[in-house]
Amino acid sequence: MLVVAAAGIMTAVFVGFALSPSSLVGSIALGLAIGVVVDAFIVRMILMPAALALLGQAARWMPRRLDRVLPRLDAEGGDLRREADAAPDGRSAQDAQMREMTRVR
């Protein structure tokens, strides 16, 4: 949805420039407008989803060396839930660290 809205705005701006009296500016703007429309509607809405569906998990494959170098991001907290479930008392190691840091001495 966001891609369509951005493409629509960009296309409107480029078509506005395409109507300019300068032939150089008009031809460049027309080319950009066509390029934005093709990219948004053909490439991003048809070809990429089809390619991802055909490739399946191979589309999300990451080389081992790169996987070791990149940091692990857990935006939804799945690792914290697994850690809490694995703890014998039902509390995670981070909970214990937090209790230790906030304990009144």
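Second entry:
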Amino acid sequence: MASRNFLIRSPKEEESNAAVREAILLGGKNAAIAGTVVAVPTLVGCRVFPWAKRNLNYTAQALIITAGRLCC
């Protein structure tokens, strides 16, 4: 005998699922924007400023970007 599911979803549950999906999408977009805002100036600075060009390798650049992302 097949099992039957007698639970009926309320309209509020469907609305909350849509709200959760929308929040996840907006959070992803904001994270991408924040990552770009932190990464671009660091990478440009490491290529333009003579001191940074001489003293910061790729690992140091990645650590600066990561620290900037954690602070935001």
